[in-house]
Amino acid sequence: MKEFQLKYGCNPNQTPARIFMEEGELPVEILNGRPGYINFLDALNSWQLVKEAKEATGQVCAASFKHVSPTSAAVGKPLSEQLLHACFVDDIEGVNDSPLACAYARARGTDRMSSFGDFIALSDECDETTARIIAREVSDGIIAPAYSKEALAILKTKRKGGYNIIQIDKDYIPAPIERKQVFGVTFEQGRNNFEIGMPLLQNIVTKNKSLPKDKAADLLIALITLKYTQSNSVCFAADGQAIGVGAGQQSRIHCTRLAAQKADLWHLRQHEKTLSLQFAEGVGRPEKNNIIDLYLSDESEEVLGEKVWRQYFRVRPEPFTREEKAEYLAKISGVSLGSDAFFPFADNIERAAKSGVSYVAEPGGSVRDDLVIEAADAHNMVMAFTGMRLFHH
Q1: What is residue 258's predicted lDDT score, i.e. its pLDDT?
Q2: In angstroms, what CA-CA distances link 297 with 264, 273, 321?
């Protein structure tokens, strides 16, 4: 297949629309559904992310994408009982027997509000367990190099049989030059083939130079996630997954604050108070996400108020006070942070420290690098200057 006609482009008024190859065949096969313009943007960006993450870490990887940025990406590390519950997969048998299912459960479970209606990428063949997780989530589609017979049958039942399923040639290598048009003007550049790996973390500029292997792997996951996130962007990572992505902000401190807020919510979702919420009969999975988000916010009375709580809970929960949340988050440490460009001010480090960041990877090159390093030293952080910017637009 050399080209594929799309219903429309980014918006319904943008017709005609298609994807096509100037030379050769398309590297994808559409097994089900009719993916759209944004679906393919998500699919092709997310596939690159999981492919590179697997190459860098040696572990299977999954990503959850929305509007051309990842909500999260994760490798296939087993989930604790607490994490299985926080990711809404504790009732699915055999999750920890499938590394790929673990990876997607983590990726989808990190920021469930943003992942609603996601596009999924898997680094390896989609198996039955992973498909059973995907089957009950609101999702637009999936891209993977292969599907088991059982997985394909399950996925084809989604969206009344119209779920978008794309298979990509895992050996496809794109042309070294890429082009795009904006306002009738053609832009051309070399593809970003920069390889993100352990050598990128060798230039440690802080006094603390102890970078454990697992924390270095988290930094690589953060950096690879950033490579396919709309810039400016900052990513927090822990335990083999991106736990907070701050994407597309004009100010780097706003990227850091957004990523930190999402990372804080990820940790708070695993608190005993959150895990023990007893939802009312008939409350669906998407509604639970919204309820938890409000419960953990400063507007918790919207779901805990005397006149409304019975709509959401069988038993009225105790409020999760601001002081309790602060005390819990203050105990968090060992979080990794990546930035797609240098930190121009030390305020990013100060904000990151409040969310348990202990390891940082950023390009360096600011006129205020000395102040950023000084702030990292004050918090006993390990910070590596990668020397490589990772803007993506």
Answers
A1: 97
A2: 11, 14, 9
Query: Does position 1 have pLDDT exceeding 90, yes or no?
Result: no
CATH architecture of 3-173: 3-Layer(aba) Sandwich (3.40)
Instruction: List residues with catalytic annotation.
Output: 66-67, 232, 393
Report d(CA 25, CA 311) in Å as an integer.
Answer: 53
Same topology, domains 3-173 and 196-268+329-385? Answer is: yes
Q: For residue 239, is it left (φ>0), alpha (ψ between -120 and 50) or beta?
A: left
> If one looks up domain 196-268+329-385 in CATH, what number appears?
3.40.140.20
Which pLDDT tens digit goes with each residue over 72-103? 999 999 999 999 999 999 999 999 999 999 99
Confidence of residue 163 (pLDDT cuts 50, 70, 90): very high
